[in-house]
Amino acid sequence: MTTPARALRLPIRPELAGEEPYGAPQLDVPVLLNVNENPYAPGPEVVASIASAVAEAASGLNRYPDRDFLGLRGDLADYLAVESGVRLSAEQVWAANGSNEVMMHVLQAFAGPGRTVVSFAPTYSMYPEYARDTHSRYIAGRRETDFTLDAAHAAELIRAEQPSVVILTSPNNPTGTALPPATVRAVLDAALEVDVDGAPAVVVVDEAYGEFRRDGVPSALELLAEYPNLAVSRTMSKAFALAGARLGYLAARTEIIDALRVVRLPYHLSAVTQAVARAALAHAPSLLGMVKELRVERDATVAWLREQKFDVADTDSNFVLFGTFPDRHAVWQGLLDRGVLIRETGPEGWLRVSIGTREEMTAFKDALVEVAGL
Length: 374
Ligand code: PMP
What we know:
Aspartate Aminotransferase, domain 1, seven-stranded mixed sheet, 12 helices
């Protein structure tokens, strides 16, 4: 039987019709400053440790991996104790293939049909997608013109919308803005007053860029003991320079973690991933060694952009949002034509550049001088 030559019709969910997969262009150009990666590849000692850990894991790959991976979760808890001074047990830590998957677990467990997820825009553009993919309603509150979050507005929105999940991002992507603890507390307090089937809202603070925060800016991890409805999400993709390994994690009360364990797929974290992450964590000081340098380079980039009279958002992250351009696409394209890939994202007129090596930032600045006619 022959198939008639017409478009294949599929029973795709109506809300997915015409949707494009999320993702920035992956282009082969010399200077990649578009997805907030760490420009410093793991050094030879780390590579050797990872390789031997993977070899050991390989000899057991006929078996499913450790489903509850308490070894890795304990290592992550130990790392967080050193990084933020907050001591958690292995049972208070969860992990998955990138913090994207961690967040999906959160929404699968706590959002869903008839439920609402609240976040504050401009922010990470995957949040509405997590909501869509879990059949949840998504409401974006606003950030102020300087991208800070007005605590009264946030509390009011939470009261009005009664979400089951609130996502705060600190430092925020794409603006770089970190939230002061008073704002996080105001949101947590408002979330405690929510009544979704008799329960308060869960607040996830997405700290994917947490390690890049400036001195004196605390992590929301410090509030975990006080607020039962708080979860803090982190990743090894950025500060750990391990984006390719796909390891995100989350810290919260065991009751929250236990709910995530219900929705995870069986054996979601491969034995190879677990081995890579544990080997890398044993080298945390060396992997994180370049964070300080990136923060210095970040502050220098902010200062330079301001000297050129650009508007620059205050940033506690490894990227800088700057502008504004009447035709930002032309600027983005002009930089790309000169071998520098940045990101066309954020509010109209703004562009985002990730912090690379000193040489890469020089290439970026030189290209921008030409393109913007400085
Ligand atoms: N949260 C934020 C705010 C991000 O910017 C990103 C990555 N761009 C993620 C989460 C996801 O990171 P990953 O899945 O690599 O952990």
